[in-house]
Amino acid sequence: MHKQTITTSTNQYDVVVGDDLLSTLYTYLPKAYQHILVVTDSVVNELYTEKVLTHLPDSAKVSVHVVPAGEASKSMEQYSELLTEAIVQQLDRKSLIIALGGGMIGDLAGFVASTYMRGIDYIQVPTTILAHDSSVGGKVAINHPEGKNLIGSFYPPQAVIYDVSTLQSLPDKEIRSGYAEVVKHGFISNRAYLDDVLKTDLTTQIDPIVTTEHLQKGIAVKASVVERDEKESNIRKYLNFGHTLGHAIESELGYGQITHGEAVAIGMLFAIRVSEYKFKISLPYDAFYRWLSANNYPLQLPAIPLEKLVERMKIDKKSENSTVQLVLLKEIGEPTSENISDEELTDLLEKFMGELGSE
Ligand SMILES: NC(=O)c1ccc[n+]([C@@H]2O[C@H](COP(=O)([O-])OP(=O)(O)OC[C@H]3O[C@@H](n4cnc5c(N)ncnc54)[C@H](O)[C@@H]3O)[C@@H](O)[C@H]2O)c1
Ligand SMILES: O=C(O)C(=O)C[C@@H](O)[C@H](O)[C@H](O)COP(=O)(O)O
Ligand SMILES: [Zn+2]
């Protein structure tokens, strides 16, 4: 078991990573709760809810709310249903929400926790590789049809309890999606970590020891950023590497048509190309492309009109005065955030989409 404490200017909480933590979940709760609402999705519910329920204290009243699996549930409708559930179950200010699942559940349940009665406690119990990223740092949100995560808050959990044995049941697509964020943490932090991650073969059974090491390093990268800039005034933007285009692709194709990580992978390829062009440098675009291709990431998209992508990118939360900001790399481990005009963005996107090809 590995424990890391996240300390920001306003908060402190533990991120505990280890095997079979679901069966000792109650020992990691920061305090005793009389009333607990477990929020999970329809897939994770079948796999892990019972284990969680068996190991919560008998003294607590526990209810479960199951949301349909998939990105489409990070919606106003599910948010509203969950708030109604919290009211019906009579959760009060001393109650706890347990977000049991991947990033979709963490973001949705965390946003409910941040707004119900102006904020109640919640803990993150991540069950995907991707959620090494989403469970840490306190960004919680739902999507709007116009754009990803447009409605949300910064609201840290009381604890993150990451039982990595749950990762054994992940389908290949979700392994790929999660590893894209691991690679992102490599690109924005250091070459040795990146090179190590790009040696991973995701087409064969993942090695739990190697993956756990990758996840712990990713969590450490994320922690060091959010500890210094919790509310994204400056360096937290770097965690958005690959996301400006990635989010535009997700919302334009329709939530859930492509996974978050798969879209971010394409976004990172674009950000690398733009970095090479802007800073007259060479980055490992080809090596990264080969790794993505060898691991079956979808690299050709249905044809999307460029102006639609540009419009979507302008809605991104980093934009100021409708000017798109892209996170670029001056070199591996040296991210920067740069404004880019619509004209330049359109030209660069056109070239990149041509290079990538469409379905
Ligand atoms: N808040 C943040 O900082 C942050 C960071 C990164 C991503 N995100 C968000 O996270 C979301 C993506 O998260 P995700 O990739 O975990 O998606 P997800 O939560 O939708 O999970 C992906 C799929 O895997 C299934 N699943 C989950 N755990 C499983 C397990 N152990 N075994 C088998 N199946 C399992 C789910 O039912 C779902 O079908 C996106 O909405 C993204 O915007 C947020
Ligand atoms: O924690 C962050 O900050 C990130 O940017 C992490 C991203 O991986 C994540 O997808 C996040 O939800 C994106 O944030 P957003 O502010 O662009 O919605
Ligand atoms: Zn992300």
Write the topology of this structure.
Blueprint: E1 2-7, E2 12-18, E3 35-41, H1 42-54, E4 61-67, H2 76-88, E5 96-101, H3 103-115, E6 121-126, H4 131-134, E7 139-144, E8 147-154, E9 159-163, H5 172-189, H6 191-197, H7 208-228, H8 243-253, H9 260-279, H10 285-294, H11 306-314, E10 324-331, E11 334-340, H12 342-356
Parallel strand pairs: 2-9, 3-4, 3-5, 5-6, 6-9
Antiparallel strand pairs: 1-2, 7-8, 10-11
The structure holds nicotinamide-adenine-dinucleotide (NAD), ligand LNCXM5UN and zinc ion.
Approximately how much helix is present in the residues?
40-55%
Q: Indicate the low-confidence ranges by residue numbers.
A: none
Major sheet strand order: 1-2-9-6-5-3-4
Q: Quick one: overall form?
A: globular
The share of residues in extended strands comes to 15-25%
H/E order of the elements? EEEHEHEHEHEEEHHHHHHHEEH
Number of strands: 11
| Mean pLDDT across all amino acids | 97
Q: Give the count of helical stretches.
A: 12
Distance between the termini: 44 Å
Largest sheet: 7 strands, mixed
Q: Compute the gyration radius: what is it?
A: 20 Å
Q: Which cofactor or ligand species appear? A: nicotinamide-adenine-dinucleotide, the ligand O=C(O)C(=O)C[C@@H](O)[C@H](O)[C@H](O)COP(=O)(O)O, zinc ion
SS class: alpha/beta
Organism: Gracilibacillus pellucidus
Protein name: 3-dehydroquinate synthase
EC number: 4.2.3.4
Enzyme class: lyase
What does the model show?
The protein is α/β, with parallel strands linked by helices. 43% of the residues lie in helices and 20% in strands. The protein has helices spanning 42-54, 76-88, 103-115, 131-134, 172-189, 191-197, 208-228, 243-253, 260-279, 285-294, 306-314, 342-356; strands at residues 2-7, 12-18, 35-41, 61-67, 96-101, 121-126, 139-144, 147-154, 159-163, 324-331, 334-340. The chain has a seven-stranded mixed beta sheet with strand order 1-2-9-6-5-3-4, with helices on both faces. Strands 7-8 form a two-stranded antiparallel ribbon. A two-stranded antiparallel ribbon has the order 10-11. Strand 5 (96-101), helix 3 (103-115) and strand 6 (121-126) form a beta-alpha-beta unit. Helix 2 packs across helix 3 (103-115) and helix 5 (172-189) packs across helix 7. The longest helix is centred in the middle third of the chain and has 21 residues, at 208-228. The structure holds nicotinamide-adenine-dinucleotide (NAD), the ligand O=C(O)C(=O)C[C@@H](O)[C@H](O)[C@H](O)COP(=O)(O)O and zinc ion.
